[in-house]
Amino acid sequence: MVSSMALPNVWNASDASESDIYLVEKALDGEIAAYEKLVSRYQNKIMGYVVRMTNGDREEAEDVVQETFIKAYRSLDSFRGQASFSTWLYKIATNLVIDRARLKKRRPQQAYSLDEPFGDDETGGREIPDSRYEPSKGVEREELRQLVRQVVGEMPTDKRQVLVMCDLQGMAYEEISQVLSIPLGTVKSRIFHARADLARRLRPYISGVK
Amino acid sequence: MTRLSNEQIMDYLDGTLSKEERARVESHLQANAEDAQLVNELRFAMSAAKDWHESETVRVSDNFWPTLRDNLGPAPSRGVLSSLQKSWRQAFGTSPATRLSLGAATAAIVLAMGAFLFAPQSAQQPVVAESLSAQDLAFVEQSVEQHEAYVAASPVAGDVSSLETGDDEVENDENP
């Protein structure tokens, strides 16, 4: 019987009504509730990204996320659906984070060469002057987390972006490539060097984790 | 001994290598302590980063949406392109299958029009004159002129289209 046949998702009206592009269309028609659904769907993901890019400053991060959704709403008509809505949001958020960082004129960050091979050279790493992290004493899990937070926070923006998107947010290389408008090879190279930097800083504690 | 490339290490850690390639890398890691250490350190770093991220739940505040709604401003307006897209969707639906069918039909029409408009000239016009030598062409033109003169002088019904029926037919007509 035809009526009892399972239809694929593309034919399923209820699934289509929940798609991002459908909600965008509804929002463009003036239905604020549709945009609220989109915001609810992505607010914490974008927040998770931005808060890592603002060194854990949640207040500032929430301001950026607010601004991200305001900008997205006001230029909703320019969303063509060629990339996913979340990719578009990440792109807006990334630009806002960069703009804010420029405005703040923070201390200049150490420049890294993306082509620099990972080796045993210790000069690239910045050792933490904290005796608690000596290997012989072992490292509690929470201390390790704090160290990771510190290292990620000190990374140059280009490496931190890809590390957060890939290893923390679980985004695919292709999506990161779209968000940052850089080639796939560059994404992979940056991720490798970001991980290598982090690994270099964590090296003394690898055997000490409980 | 040759070291693993950065890309090989990335693919190994991502688990995207083929079974054979993965076995080759693992065999290499058993023999090369430097690469094995590097892979372990990278794996540890990835794991530590994930653990840190998961330990800190990051969520927006409870009044995020009310604050946002107050600052959104007026509803965004549609541009011309967006309006056209909406009309298209309303006319033909948003189903991927429908769009695929319409796309295929449009492609077929465009191809047919393209084939008609950009077909080689040879498909639309006779090429006899282009393939003849100047001498042959002059002969043909002379024959046509002679035939037209003959037809004009003694028109015979049904005889206009043939160059070969001229004198013979006249002779035949004349002979009982």
Provide the fold topology.
The complex is a heterodimer of chains A (210) and B (176).
Chain A: H1 13-17, H2 20-28, H3 32-53, H4 58-74, H5 85-104, H6 141-154, H7 157-168, H8 173-180, H9 184-202
Helix pairs in contact in A: 2-3, 3-4, 3-5, 4-5, 5-8, 6-9, 7-9, 8-9
Chain B: H1 6-14, H2 19-31, H3 33-55, H4 64-71, H5 80-92, H6 96-117, H7 121-124, H8 128-131, H9 134-153, H10 166-174
Distance between the termini of chain A: 60 Å
Mean pLDDT of chain A: 80
Q: Strand share of the residues of chain A?
A: under 5%
**Assembly state here?**
heterodimer
Q: How large is the share of residues in beta strands of chain B? A: under 5%
Mean pLDDT of chain B: 78
Q: How many E strands of chain A?
A: 0
Overall shape of chain A: elongated
Radius of gyration of chain A: 21 Å
Main sheet record of chain A: none
Textual characterization of the structure:
The complex is a heterodimer of chains A (210) and B (176). Chain A has 210 residues and is mainly alpha-helical. Chain A contains 9 helices and no strands. Chain A is elongated, with a radius of gyration of 21 Å. The N and C termini of chain A lie far apart (60 Å). Chain B is mainly α. Chain B has a domain of 50 residues. Chain B is elongated, with a radius of gyration of 41 Å. Chains A and B meet through helix 2, helix 3, helix 4, helix 6 and helix 7 of A and helix 1, helix 3, helix 4 and helix 5 of B.
